[in-house]
Amino acid sequence: MRIAQVSPLFESVPPRLYGGTERVVSFLTDALVELGHDVTLFASGDSHTDAELVACWPRALRLEGRSEQHLAVHLLQMERVMKRRADFDVVHFHTDPLQFPLMRREPLAHFTTLHGRLDLPELGPLVREFREMPLVSVSNAQRAPMPWAPWHGTVHHGLPCDLFEGRFARGEYLAFLGRISPEKRVDRAIAIANRLQMPLRIAAKVDNADKRYFDETIKPLLDSPWVEFIGEIDERQKQDFLGRAVALLFPIDWPEPFGLVMIEAMACGTPVVAWRHGSVPEVIEPGLTGAIVEDLDAASQAVLDAAKLDRRKCRERFEQRFTAERMARDYLAIYQALMQPSALVQAA
């Protein structure tokens, strides 16, 4: 099958540091190539892939400090996709709804995976206007704000089996990995560490939009003797960071669409203690790969219980549920269905 993958240009594929969507695009693209398909990736020029790369901008926009001017660059990317449209059996977009007006006018098998939250007030009217656009969700929970949308499936994210190795020795500290923002609630992680008097290591990115929140709300909490703030880490550092943790804390306070870091931890054999929001109940199996909690008391107890879980089983569940090959095969089934004559008028 001839497949186009269209990635956002904010980060390279894969990202050098933080970046969920572009990381998933990387894993999916290379897994499809491994399965024998002809794949073309439209991404930034500093990307690395087993597919044919069409460089739509020289470098990732965030690294260039050009994220605020992204619209012009993404429109250029769409034009390059359209010029190559005859080369593909299916085009898979990861660029939110930017391509909807173009695809409305093109008889081309395509769909869009929506990677973000869908409860923003502007999204409902837009999706209703373009209700014929085929969509795929990354969790069933993600669909809650618009169950009426033209969904053609849900595909959970996956990682290459060899990206991380399971580490089965007893962990040494609690871990928080991701981004500092109000909805990620690193303050809850710090509170748990202080309650239990357990070391907490925080590996997190601070966006410019969240710098004031970090400076005013989180930075004072870092004075705790139990807390170490590391900053943003790359893919190579994740193995050691996650693998040596007693548990990953995922104390979110928002409708998380998926939460890639949860399966990264599982791949390392590290259980996850997560708040019951968004996709968490679809990913975490209590008593096996971690715990699902709703308050600090339950979270503190769950950390103590997590230290007793079988880390090998945690890794095994990752291999059974969240590999890149499984993700690629799930998407292939959607590609094939979309290529049928009635696909664009019947949503699953």
Give a short synopsis of this structure.
This protein is of the alpha/beta class and 348 residues long. Helix content is 35%, strand content 18%.
Sketch the topology as an H/E string, one letter per element: EHEEHHEHEHEEEHEHEHEHEHEHHH
Q: Taking Cα atoms only, what radius of gyration do you get, to the nearest Å?
A: 20 Å
Provide the domain count: 2
Residue stretches low in confidence (pLDDT < 50, at least 5 long) are: 344-348
Going by CATH, the homologous superfamily of the largest domain would be Glycogen Phosphorylase B
Bulk shape:
globular
Q: Into which percentage range does the β-strand content fall?
A: 15-25%
Largest sheet: 7 strands, parallel
- CATH class placement of the largest domain: Alpha Beta
Number of strands: 13
Mean pLDDT across every amino acid position: 94
For this structure, the CATH topology of the largest domain is: Rossmann fold
Description:
- There is one protein chain.
- Helix 1 (20-34) packs across helix 13.
- The chain is 35% helix and 18% strand.
- Helix 1 (20-34) links the parallel strand 1 (2-6) and strand 2 (38-44).
- The protein has 13 helices and 13 strands.
- The strands form 2 sheets. The chain has a 7-stranded parallel sheet.
- The protein is of the alpha/beta class and 348 residues long.
- Residues 171-318 form the Glycosyl transferase family domain.
- This is Glycosyltransferase family 4 protein.
- It holds the Pfam family Glycos_transf_1.
